[in-house]
């Protein structure tokens, strides 16, 4: 077979506009949160998980609903049930390596604090962290992220942590998040400023680790003590509140179109399997899709998982099976130590750091298929 014909066979299975790794469904039936969870798991995949504002807009555009509706976020009150997150959606917080606490922190105010005190937000002081009550007011750092670099902005107006996060997301990208940003001299030289670290007791129904929160008001960033433990979308603007889980409301489900196949095969065998049994190998053409793949790679049985990305040494470029060429203008997530391109190479995502690596396509790994 001529290479050009092989390329036509590989590409053109679907366009980016019609290939989605997941989709939302609005169910206009009044159910309790738990009944809604059961319905979504039996009919689709689960109650809706929301990873960022792009997801939020997609969810709201799935219906003209004006009613308050359940999503898949549930609180498990109690100090011992809190989990730390980075504010930036999609950036996973590693408790064993990401923390830089001052001695004795985090301490919820320390031994002299009133009973029940909780401190769920974080300031930086000489590069070390202190936990603080989220409604205290400090200055803070925002960042604006681009493909090439981050630009940092020192906001000298004091705000609560939720106000600071909202300000950064509205005017820039987010509060400073991740050790690489905190190591920047612009940020590291300041003290008593909010950074993008918080903890709460909220968990997604499907077990995903999304840190995205879009509460309607400051009071909705609860300290894990309320009996209203199920989250709702309030309106078409996509802001959230919470209510008693036994209330009856309409709800949002999501349907996962991504399938992890726990078989170890070559890249060509993976491509054939996906096209014969599902739709295609997965393509990742933006960071939203990357985030969705990262959440589902945790159950892989191999260190790498094949993607629908292959190199043509005849034409000299990497291409997705969904008809997207990978170049400097398009989204990519290569590991920094990837060397020059070679023939007979395809791309796999690493289960440890979620970066893309080129691998000889006769190696055998798990792989991702898409349903549509």
TrEMBL record:
A Pfam family of this chain: Lectin_C
Domain C-type lectin: 24-143, 147-254, 252-370
Keyword entries, A-Z: Signal
SMART domains: CLECT
Superkingdom assignment: Eukaryota
Region forming the signal peptide: 1-19
Protein name (database record): C-type mannose receptor 2-like
Lineage summary: Eukaryota, Metazoa, Chordata, Craniata, Vertebrata
């Amino acid at each position: 077979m001529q290479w050009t014909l092989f390329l036509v066979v590989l590409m053109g299975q679907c366009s980016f506009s019609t290939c989605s790794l997941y989709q939302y469904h609005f169910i206009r039936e009044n159910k309790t949160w738990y009944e809604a969870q059961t319905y979504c798991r039996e009919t689709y995949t689960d109650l809706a998980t929301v990873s960022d504002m792009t997801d939020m807009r997609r969810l709201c555009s799935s219906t003209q609903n004006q009613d308050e509706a359940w999503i898949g976020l549930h609180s498990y009150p109690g100090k011992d049930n809190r989990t730390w997150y980075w504010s930036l959606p999609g950036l996973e917080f590693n408790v064993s390596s990401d923390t830089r606490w001052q001695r004795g922190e985090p301490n919820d105010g320390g031994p002299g604090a009133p009973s029940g005190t909780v401190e769920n937000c974080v300031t930086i002081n000489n590069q070390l962290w202190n936990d603080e009550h989220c409604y205290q007011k400090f200055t803070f750092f925002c960042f604006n992220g681009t493909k090439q670099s981050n630009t940092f902005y020192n906001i000298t107006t004091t705000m609560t942590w939720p106000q600071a996060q909202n300000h950064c997301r509205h005017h820039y990208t987010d509060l400073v998040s991740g050790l690489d940003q905190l190591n920047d001299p612009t940020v590291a030289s300041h003290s008593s400023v909010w950074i993008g670290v918080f903890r709460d007791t909220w968990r997604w129904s499907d077990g995903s680790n999304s840190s995205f929160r879009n509460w309607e008001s400051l009071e909705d960033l609860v300290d894990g003590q309320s009996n209203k433990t199920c989250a709702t979308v309030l309106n078409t603007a996509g802001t959230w509140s919470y209510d008693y889980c036994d209330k009856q409301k309409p709800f949002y489900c999501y349907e996962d179109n991504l399938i992890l196949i726990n078989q170890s095969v070559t890249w060509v065998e993976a491509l054939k399997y996906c096209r014969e049994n599902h739709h295609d190998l997965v393509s990742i053409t933006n960071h939203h899709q990357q985030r969705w793949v990262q959440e589902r790679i945790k159950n892989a049985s191999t260190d790498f998982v094949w993607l629908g990305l292959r190199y043509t040494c005849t034409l000299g470029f990497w291409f997705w099976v969904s008809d997207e060429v990978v170049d400097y203008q398009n989204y990519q997530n290569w590991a920094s130590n990837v060397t020059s391109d070679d023939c007979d190479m395809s791309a796999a995502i690493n289960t440890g750091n979620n970066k893309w690596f080129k691998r000889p396509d006769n190696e055998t790994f798990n792989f991702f298929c898409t349903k549509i």
